[in-house]
Structures are given as structure tokens and as C-alpha cells.
Amino acid sequence: MKIASFNINGVKARLPRLLEWLAETRPAVACLQEIKSQDEGFPVAEFEKLGYKGIWHGQKSFNGVAILADGEMPVEVQRGLEGEPEDDHSRYIEADVFGIRVAGIYLPNGNPVPGPKFDYKLRWMKRLRDRMAQIRAEEVPAIVTGDFNVIPFDRDIWSPPAMASDALMQPESRDAYFRLLGDGWTDAIATHNPQGGVWTYWDYQAGAWPRDHGFRIDHALLSPELADRLVACGVDKAHRGREKASDHAPVWVELRDA
User: Fold this and answer.
1) Measured between alpha carbons, how far is 23 from 213 in angstroms, rounded to an integer?
2) MF terms per GO, please (predicted)?
3) What is the pTM of this model?
4) Residue 174: closest CA among 253, 112, 227, 121
5) Helix (H) or strand (E) holding 101
6) Across 4-8, average pLDDT
7) What CATH number is given to the structural domain containing 212?
8) What is the band of 6 on the pLDDT scale with cuts at 50, 70, 90?
């Protein structure tokens, strides 16, 4: 079974590329981020034509997450994170599908540093950790995947000095990410690529894509019950080079049956 994540950077603007990717790679589950669509505008009918069913948590012009499943309706468990009732950002959605707990996230960027947006990022990561601890306590096979907006290691970027002052590389951001790993979650891409050099994002500016000036911020974290089933993982890098593509490439994990 393949479970994938794709920050699509506008589901309507990138719909042809998204449908193309789904048809070519056929993940059993696809988590989407930055759909940038209100709930009523989400183009679910286009996905249904390919055999996908889905749930989504939208927001006008910003954020937004979704979970699509091939031939099966995801059973929603939770949308949004507890802890800040006033937080109206659509950044988290969680469902059960194919016997797996799937959480799709779009973690706050946090720039500029210092400032209220960075403070919000760190609070959001603490709330995420709390929810992931609850999932771990259920001892279910689970994956938390999406755009984490954290570059965990220097080996996860083409040039560490280029982003040294960015929220994605601050010690506090990395520490919050490492705490998730310390709680028992497995970073699939890092585990299979210990030397690094795997990018999932290339900025539209400064010729980042043709120069391969990218970094890794899209991750797939597996619970112990699911990490034992990991067969392979990767990045569909070629899709970043297509016309009118997202600035992210899809990431995926391949799992053996239970």
C-alpha cells in the first residue's frame, strides 16, 4: 500500500497536475496541503472520476488540508488541534482508512523570526505533539504526514547558510521536531536516506528548481506499529518540473500488508 503527501499549492490552480499525478502513481491514500479552497469549492467530483473519495478541511485562499482514498471513504476522526479554540486555520485532518490512522498536516511556516508567527508555530507543534501522543497511546498503525515546514538536519538542504535565519531551521523548530521522533515516531525518508540530499521543495524564485537548490520539509512520520511495515519511500521529484507545477514534490511511503 502506498500513502502519499502532496502540498499542491492551490488545488484549483494545480488541478491538472494533481489529477495527472494521481492517475500515474495511484497512491491508496493521498494527503493534500495548501488546497486554498473553501469547503464548498473543493473539486471532489474530479477525484471521484478517478475512483477517489475524500474528506477535506478548507479555508478561503489559504491553508487547507484533505485526505483522498482510492475506492474507500476515509472515516474522519478529527479536524483541527485542541488547545487554542480561537485558532481558525485549516491545518490538520485525521481519519481512519484501510485499517490505518492517517493524519495530514500543514504546519505553520513561522516567519518572520522572532515574532508572533514563530511563537504560533511553536505552540502549534506542541499541540501536534500532544495529539500524536494520544494516537500513540491507542497503539494503532498510524502515519502523520504533510508539510511540516521544518528542515530537520543540515543535510536536508542544499546550503545550510542560505536558510540559517529562517523559521524552518531555527533550533526551536528542530527541537520540537526531534521531540516527535523521541516519542517513538519514525521519519521514513530520513531512515531510508541517512546521508540526506533528498529535497521536497524548490522555491519558484532565483532559479531554485533548475539549479536543484531545494530542501526537505515534507515528511512522513510512522508509529511503531506502522514503521515495521515500511518497505520503501521516496519523492516524486519529476512532477516538480512539469508545467505550472506546485513548488513541492509529492512524498510517499510503501507499506507491506498487516
Assistant:
1) 28
2) double-stranded DNA 3'-5' DNA exonuclease activity
3) 0.98
4) 121
5) strand 100-106
6) 98
7) 3.60.10.10
8) very high
**255 and 24 Cβ atoms separated by less than 8 Å:** no
For 106, the enclosing helix (H) or strand (E) is strand 100-106
- Name the grid cell of 247: 513548488
Residue 64 grid cell: 487547507
208: how many CB neighbours lie within 10 A of its CB? 18
Q: What's the domain count of the chain?
A: 1
Domain of 111, in residue numbers: 2-255
For helices 116-138 and 171-182, the axis angle rounded to 10 degrees is 0
Tell me which DSSP letter residue 89 carries: -
Mean model confidence pLDDT for the chain: 98
Residue 52 confidence (pLDDT): 98
Distance CA 244, CA 193 (A): 29
- Residues linked to residue 222 through DSSP beta bridges, in sequence order: 143, 186
